[in-house]
Amino acid sequence: MKLAPHLHRLGNDLVASYLIDLPEGITLVDAGLPGHWNDLQRELEAIGRPLADVRGVVLTHGDSDHIGFAERLRQETAVPVFIHSADAHRVRTGEKPKTPMGPARIGPVLSFFAYGLRKNAMRTRYVQDVVEVADGDVLELPGAPVVIGMPGHSPGSIAVHVPAVDAVFVGDALTTRHVLTGREGAQPAPFTDEPAEAMASLDRLAEVSASWVLPGHGAPWRGSPADIAAAVRAT
After folding, report:
1. Rounded distance, CA 34 to CA 72, Å?
2. What's the rounded Cα separation, in Å, for the pair 21 and 165?
């Protein structure tokens, strides 16, 4: 799905990752679920770019619904997979603390898990070789992505600012569709390790200049990071 020039979404409002298509190559932000591999192939075909044009994948954090096809892509093309050092163990092993489920409604929960099954969520492969990054790093990838530390959802959660497409990719630092309740609109994401820390991290997001805020779950936000940060705080 094309959002804007050079900016594409893979997946849907349940689980999304993103493709940045620039003349010098392609950068992916997150890798969704394993079944999104087919979505990636279709999007590349639609824009007339080969898989070999992908230069790297930047993961916003190490949870399984964001790393789906990353290991397959790494093994088949040898592209690097970038993740914050604080989530490197999580992305290699899947180990993470248990968090309270919080509010839920049976319909949205079943829809989320059914979609996961259709997209092979149970066959997620953890990423065995990663490039660790830190807050403030500017990555040598198309679009020169900037790493913004957003701890809270996980210790190594990041936002990824790509000025070339006027967008900031936020992973699960917030959501615009709660996968467990179905509630739409800007709000905190479920399954967050440290909710208070995640809320504090919104200060970092509010400082970013961009016209798109793109979460891992929910509709794209067309507006400023400061506005969506304020909207999350108001919930």
Report:
1. 8
2. 9
Between CA 52 and CA 201 the distance in angstroms is 35
> What contacts 24+ positions apart, CB below 8 Å, involve 121-124?
121/33, 121/34, 121/35, 121/64, 121/65, 121/68, 123/34, 124/33, 124/34, 124/64, 124/67, 124/68, 124/94
In angstroms, rounded to a whole number, what is the distance separating the alpha carbons of residues 181 and 166?
30
Residues 124-162: pLDDT tens digits?
A: 999 999 999 999 999 999 999 999 999 999 999 999 999
Question: Taking the model in full, what pTM does it have?
Answer: 0.97
Task: Give the per-residue SS3 of the chain.
Answer: CEEECCEEEEECCCCEEEEEEECCEEEEECCCCCCHHHHHHHHHHHHCCCHHHEEEEECCCCCHHHCCCHHHHHHHHCCCEEEEHHHHHHHHHCCCCCCCCCCCCHHHHHHHHHHHHHCCHHHCCCCCCCEEECCCCECCCCCCCEEEECCCCCCCCEEEEEHHHCEEEEECCCEEECCCCCCEEEECCCCCCCHHHHHHHHHHHHCCCCCEEEECCCCCEECCHHHHHHHHHCC
